[in-house]
Design brief:
There is one protein chain. This protein is α+β, with helices and mostly antiparallel strands. It has one domain. 15% of the residues lie in helices and 32% in strands. The chain is built from 2 helices and 9 strands, in the order E-E-E-E-H-E-E-H-E-E-E. The strands form 3 sheets. Strands 1-2-9-8-7 form a 5-stranded mixed beta sheet. It has a two-stranded antiparallel sheet with strand order 3-4. It has a two-stranded antiparallel sheet with strand order 5-6. The mean pLDDT is 79. This is IPIL1 protein. It comes from Myiagra hebetior.
Length: 147
């Protein structure tokens, strides 16, 4: 969605997170109710690949002789606390990624990027040559029932 406020345009973008290969997201219910506004109850689960007929896909859940311990994606070690998605870690990671990528875009010399502090989303403020401002808020989501 987007709105116009005096000299600022606000864009709100929904960013769907996808689990890495061999992983899935599981929404855990607390006391029979689910809390969609919280990310702390989204568990990241390693999926078993033993039943698949492909020999080139190792199973990280049930280790074999060549793979003695269960493994997790290095990205999940960064974005999770324990086995659960950590919204603050995700926000910080995306903010750093955007700041690093911004300098490689041709517009960076004409627009100033400011990452606004937020622990639950990624908020970016772009100020153009005529002091026009664009504010983008990236809101993170997980599709219910995602594989």
């Amino acid at each position: 969605s987007w709105n116009i406020f005096e000299d600022r345009i606000l864009y709100q973008l929904l960013v769907f997170l996808q689990p890495p290969s061999r992983h899935s997201f599981r929404l855990e219910l607390y006391g029979g109710t689910h809390l969609p506004e919280r990310c702390s109850n989204i568990r990241v689960v390693l999926e078993c690949t033993c039943l698949r007929k492909m020999e080139d896909i190792p199973c990280f859940v049930h280790p074999c002789k060549n793979n003695e311990t269960a493994q997790r994606s290095p990205l999940l070690k960064t974005l999770c606390t324990g086995s659960y998605l950590d919204l603050e870690e995700i926000s910080c990671w995306v903010q750093n990624l955007v700041q690093t990528a911004w300098e490689h875009l041709p517009q960076w010399q004409h627009w100033q990027l400011t990452v606004l502090p937020s622990s639950h989303s990624c908020q970016l403020l772009l100020t153009g040559p005529s002091d026009m401002q664009l504010c983008a808020v990236l809101v993170f989501a997980v599709e219910q029932g995602s594989p």
